[in-house]
């Protein structure tokens, strides 16, 4: 029997420290990869931070909103009380989460000898009190505005750092925007190459870098598994093995990864900056070699008017427009670069998809755990709620809610020109379906004897749900999430196609189809065709991935295979 | 397996009572929001468990033995009654008291495939109770887990294996290690070997006996395999339809059963001793639905020794079987929920899906020779039933053929009569004065 020493109770860090051989090269490679794109990673972290801040501001606004509503009906004193009460409730929820995450507890140190439940609540209340003190200090003293100012300065600093650090794939490192020189060469492009070649190199570098990251991650898993993991075999090994042999799924995974890379590296893959070409076309100029042989400059907005693909004129894929801007996929009927639109549209779709499905799946999982564990009234209420939502046609509901919010100019309708609102609506519309889909497995796992066993030695219900039930429905929710991600992308595109979902300028694939659709029979066929194909491809890929996950997770799929893993046989020798 | 050697090995049990169960009832509500008739899984049982003994709990599947075991360790809420551990009624414990008490009473589950979470390593599984009860430092917990693995015949290096890598018998050992991790005094063994290969059953049974001797455990051994029970248990309780029919020392109960149900149960085991002249007792029908148990003795619908009215004592057995079946049919018709439409049809004298009671009569009594007074009585019963008045039909049937066993007279339920020498008790009217003992009746009626 293989495996490390018998009494291997060292932590992972200790195990790595004792035998750094396989880990060091991997860590080194990781550092190199990080350094090459550090500025970009920093940028992502900052956008994430901005997203979190938006969510934070939203939560902070809840007490004031509740207070305001109460004050309208019940007078201002009641309003203040309601506001404070809501604030405390919000803080209590936050405290409960914090207590969960904290490695130790205050009350344990005090040795109060209270009951478990009482200690748990005392702990939460104590943390709530601390939070409340901090919050009021921030709200009622200058400390708050100072802190906010400090944070903003820090964010600004980081942003400028992120912008100034050269990254491997940035358009500054491998520039493809330049103008022809009267002599016949190119000015301002990478090594004086033509913009097309420079763009191709940059895009190739992006995908090569992404591939390197994947290889690095896989090798990390592999090294961990071979050198540092205590178990010779885990059930997950089988899942991974089945996934590796699922070619349809691997095809899907490849496309999905390509889609994600397109979204994450959109600024690098776009031949022209989105800011200049799409968002503020009249603020940004570029230079080109005019017909008179002089280098002139023009704004993107003015140039775009002449580079439309609207049936009469066409800038076809893989060609230059009349200002010598290279358009790998041609231009849109508005004269913008199609690939830039597609890349940033992928970003929009990904953000909406992940937010919607993430939120919806979270609601579905939490509810399914609660209803499967407690059954009874909780179950009935959830059935009623989900049936109500399901009984309304989803598309209608989405249209209804998004129209109400965007007509009312609700602040939620601002981010991504309605994208965030759409994501929240999708989460609301899709959770009942996901809950239904995982209800069977959750009820099944709740019936397992190990759940009874956990109860019999007094495990907390929440821990039982997390540890003994959720791993068994995680697979199912992943399957449905990946299938639904495709639907979300289609829904978003369809709504935008109808002019309801995401308004310009935020790029969106559905709008591209809408714009290109009248010219499908002309020389400008490429706009709607390419965008449509992209959607079909990505949706199919997500479905393929879902299928593969289902086959990989479902042990029944393994029955015909004959050979079992090595692990199953090594355990037998007692 | 030599009976003598193992009996000699058995640790001497004290007479100190550890668990007192009194009038315990566990009902399952009838699903859905609006209750409905509950399933009476455990319907008023009383018995004691002595410190250090192994009490067997046997019965057909569905008789409530698993529910009883689960109620004892508070996996199910008792509907009524008491379970006193060392004097403390644990059915009233809540919150922290319950959590503290739980470590004293643990359970070995039936299905080793279902009792271990496959996503955790063996070490994590066995360690979890220690983590929940915060026993010692993490290193101490790991050491303790390795000791436990050793104690149940596994190896310490199995700590980082997953349950998938083990056979059924080994998985059951892991489950036993987890059960013992909190050093409980009382362990419910819920058919711990019935899901295992016959070849490993004996190993697990021996392991359980060794562990009992080593840690001074008290077992409640739930089983339907009577030979295993005879082998391992000091005393046995026989359960039927939520009631304990007979309880007493194992050997006494096996060699000289008192209750008619025990007779029937034992006669189903292939008899190793050919000289034994005990005849096989066949039970007719299936156990009644525990949602609607019969009044009187729970076994009355199938009992071969049922007390009969004197004037019908010598009626043919086949005829009695037919009468019993008729009563079951009527009871079922009575409680069947009929749709409004069917009620209307019945009112109008039309056919309903319950069919003509005449057909039932023909099926049951067609081939039988009926004495005149029996024929008259049956005719009246059938007439009432044909009018869809099942209540009166049943009343007429009870009046003519009923006895104490069916709940006619007081007390409706039998008492637990003391029988034999070893403190054995049997739940049957026949032990009361004025009736013949069950074994004599059974012999006579065979
Ligand atoms: S009470 Fe009557 S029906 Fe019940 S076991 Fe005894 S003889 Fe049989």
Note the topology:
The complex is a heterodimer of chains A (574) and B (446).
Chain A: H1 12-18, H2 23-36, H3 38-74, H4 76-101, H5 106-110, H6 116-140, H7 142-164, E1 179-180, E2 186-187, H8 195-228, H9 235-244, H10 247-264, H11 266-269, H12 274-279, E3 285-289, E4 295-299, H13 300-306, E5 319-320, E6 326-327, H14 338-374, H15 376-391, H16 394-407, H17 419-446, H18 449-456, H19 461-497, H20 509-516, H21 526-553, H22 566-570
Antiparallel strand pairs in A: 1-2, 3-4, 5-6
Chain B: H1 3-9, E1 17-28, E2 39-50, E3 54-58, H2 65-72, E4 80-85, E5 88-89, H3 95-102, E6 105-108, H4 112-115, H5 122-132, H6 138-151, H7 168-180, E7 186-190, H8 198-215, E8 218-223, H9 226-232, E9 235-240, E10 243-249, H10 250-255, H11 260-267, H12 317-335, H13 340-347, H14 357-365, H15 372-386, H16 390-401, E11 416-419, E12 424-427, H17 438-445
Parallel strand pairs in B: 3-8, 3-9, 6-7, 7-8
Antiparallel strand pairs in B: 1-2, 1-4, 4-5, 9-10, 10-12, 11-12
* Strand/helix succession of chain B: HEEEHEEHEHHHHEHEHEEHHHHHHHEEH
From the 3D structure, determine the CATH topology of the largest domain in chain B.
Answer: Rossmann fold
Number of helical stretches of at least 4 residues of chain B: 17
CATH class of the largest domain in chain B: Alpha Beta
> First CA to last CA of chain A: what distance?
12 Å
Number of separate helices of chain A = 22
Q: Roughly what percent helix of chain A?
A: 55-70%
Strand content of chain B: 15-25%
CATH architecture of the domain at 339-553 in chain A: Orthogonal Bundle
Beta-strand portion of chain A reads under 5%
CATH class call of the domain at 339-553 in chain A = Mainly Alpha
Identify the biggest protein-protein contact and residues per side. Answer: A-B, 39 and 47 residues
Strand order of the largest sheet of chain B: 6-7-8-3-9-10-12-11
Cofactors, ions and other ligands in the entry: iron/sulfur cluster
Q: Looking at the chains present, what oligomeric state does this protein adopt? A: heterodimer
**What's the architecture of the largest domain in chain B, going by CATH?**
3-Layer(aba) Sandwich
Question: What's the helical proportion of residues of chain B?
Answer: 25-40%
């Amino acid at each position: 029997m293989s495996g490390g020493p018998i009494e291997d109770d060292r932590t992972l860090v200790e195990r790595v420290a004792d035998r750094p051989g396989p880990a060091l090269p991997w860590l080194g490679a990781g550092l190199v990869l990080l350094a090459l794109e550090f500025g970009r990673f920093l940028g992502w972290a900052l956008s994430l931070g901005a997203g979190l801040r938006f969510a934070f501001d939203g939560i902070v606004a809840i007490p004031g909103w509740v207070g305001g509503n109460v004050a309208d009906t019940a007078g201002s004193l009641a309003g203040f009380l309601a506001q404070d009460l809501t604030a405390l409730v919000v803080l209590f929820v936050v405290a409960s989460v914090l207590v969960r995450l904290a490695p130790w507890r205050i009350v344990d140190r005090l040795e109060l000898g209270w009951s478990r439940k009482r200690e748990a609540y005392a702990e939460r209340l104590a943390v709530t009190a601390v939070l409340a003190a901090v919050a009021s200090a921030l709200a009622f003293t200058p400390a708050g505005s100072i802190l906010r100012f400090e944070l903003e300065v820090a964010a600004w600093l980081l942003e400028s750092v992120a912008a100034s650090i050269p990254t491997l794939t940035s358009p500054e490192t491998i520039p493809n925007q330049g103008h022809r020189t009267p002599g016949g060469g190119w000015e301002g492009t990478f090594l004086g190459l033509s913009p097309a070649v420079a763009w191709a190199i940059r895009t190739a570098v992006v995908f090569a870098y992404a591939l390197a990251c994947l290889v690095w991650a896989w090798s990390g898993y592999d090294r961990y598994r071979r050198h540092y993991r205590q178990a010779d075999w885990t059930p997950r090994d089988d899942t991974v093995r089945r996934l590796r042999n699922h070619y349809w799924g691997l095809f899907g995974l490849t496309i999905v990864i390509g889609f994600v890379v397109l979204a994450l590296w959109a600024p690098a893959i776009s031949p022209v900056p989105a800011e200049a070409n799409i968002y503020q076309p009249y603020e940004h100029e570029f230079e080109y070699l005019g017909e008179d042989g002089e280098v002139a400059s023009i704004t993107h907005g003015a140039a775009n008017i002449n580079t439309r693909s609207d049936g009469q004129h066409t800038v076809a894929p893989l060609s230059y427009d009349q200002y010598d801007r290279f358009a790998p996929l041609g231009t849109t009927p508005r004269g913008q670069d199609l690939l830039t639109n597609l890349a940033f549209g992928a970003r929009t779709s990904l953000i909406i998809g992940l937010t919607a499905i993430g939120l919806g799946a979270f609601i579905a999982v939490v509810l399914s755990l609660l209803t499967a564990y407690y059954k009874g009234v909780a179950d009935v209420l959830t059935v009623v709620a989900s049936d109500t939502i399901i009984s309304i046609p989803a598309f209608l509901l989405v249209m209804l809610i998004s129209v109400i919010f965007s007509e009312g100019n609700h602040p939620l309708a601002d981010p991504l020109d309605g994208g965030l609102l759409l994501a929240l609506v999708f989460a609301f519309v899709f959770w009942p379906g996901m809950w239904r889909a995982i209800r069977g497995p959750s009820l099944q796992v709740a019936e397992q004897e190990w759940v009874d066993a956990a109860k019999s030695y007094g495990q907390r219900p929440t821990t039982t749900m997390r540890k003994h039930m959720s791993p068994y429905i995680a697979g199912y929710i992943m399957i449905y999430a990946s299938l639904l991600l495709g639907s979300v992308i289609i829904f978003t595109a369809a709504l935008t196609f109808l002019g309801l979902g995401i308004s310009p300028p935020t790029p969106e694939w559905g709008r591209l189809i809408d714009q290109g659709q009248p010219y499908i029979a002309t020389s400008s066929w490429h706009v709607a065709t390419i965008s449509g194909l992209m959607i079909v491809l990505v949706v199919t890929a997500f479905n393929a991935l879902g299928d593969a996950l289902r086959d990989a997770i479902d042990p029944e799929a393994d029955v015909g295979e004959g050979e079992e893993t090595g692990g199953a046989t090594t355990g037998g020798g007692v | 397996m030599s009976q003598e050697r193992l009996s000699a090995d058995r640790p001497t049990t004290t007479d100190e009572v550890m668990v007192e169960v009194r009038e315990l009832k566990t009902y399952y509500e009838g699903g859905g929001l609006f209750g409905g008739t509950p399933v009476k899984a455990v319907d008023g049982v009383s018995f004691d468990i002595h410190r250090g003994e192994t009490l067997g709990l046997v019965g057909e599947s569905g008789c409530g033995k698993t529910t009883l075991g689960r109620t004892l360790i508070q996996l199910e809420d008792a509907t009524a009654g008491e379970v006193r551990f060392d004097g403390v009624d644990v059915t009233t414990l809540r919150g922290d008291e319950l959590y503290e008490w739980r470590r004293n009473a643990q359970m070995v589950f039936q299905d080793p495939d279902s009792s271990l979470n496959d996503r955790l390593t063996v070490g994590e599984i066995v360690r979890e109770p220690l983590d929940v009860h915060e026993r010692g430092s993490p290193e101490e917990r790991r050491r303790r887990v390795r000791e436990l693995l050793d104690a149940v015949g596994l190896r310490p290096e199995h700590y980082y294996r997953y349950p998938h890598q083990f056979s059924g018998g080994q998985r059951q050992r892991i489950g036993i290690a987890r059960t013992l991790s909190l050093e409980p005094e009382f362990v419910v063994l819920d058919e711990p070997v019935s899901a295992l290969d016959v070849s490993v059953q004996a190993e697990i049974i021996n392991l359980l006996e060794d562990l009992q001797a080593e840690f001074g455990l008290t077992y409640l051994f739930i089983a339907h395999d009577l030979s295993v029970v005879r082998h391992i248990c000091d005393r046995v309780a026989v359960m039927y339809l939520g009631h304990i029919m007979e309880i007493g020392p194992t050997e006494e109960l096996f060699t000289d059963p008192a209750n008619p149900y025990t007779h029937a149960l034992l006669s189903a085991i292939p008899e190793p001793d050919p000289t034994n002249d005990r005849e096989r007792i066949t039970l007719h029908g299936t156990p009644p639905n525990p949602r609607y148990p019969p009044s009187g003795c729970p076994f009355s619908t199938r009992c071969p020794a049922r007390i009969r009215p004197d004037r019908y004592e010598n009626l043919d057995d086949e005829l009695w079987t037919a009468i019993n079946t008729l009563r079951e049919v009527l009871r079922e018709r009575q409680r069947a929920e009929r749709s409004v439409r069917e009620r209307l049809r019945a009112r109008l004298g039309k056919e309903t899906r319950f069919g003509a009671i005449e057909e039932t009569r023909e099926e049951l009594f067609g081939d039988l020779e009926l004495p005149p007074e029996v024929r008259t009585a049956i005719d009246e019963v059938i007439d009432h039933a044909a009018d869809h008045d099942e209540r009166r039909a049943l009343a007429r049937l009870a009046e003519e053929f009923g006895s104490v066993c069916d709940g006619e007279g007081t007390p409706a339920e039998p008492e637990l009569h003391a029988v034999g020498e070893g403190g054995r008790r049997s739940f049957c009217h026949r032990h009361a004065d004025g009736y013949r003992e069950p074994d004599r009746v059974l012999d006579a009626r065979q």
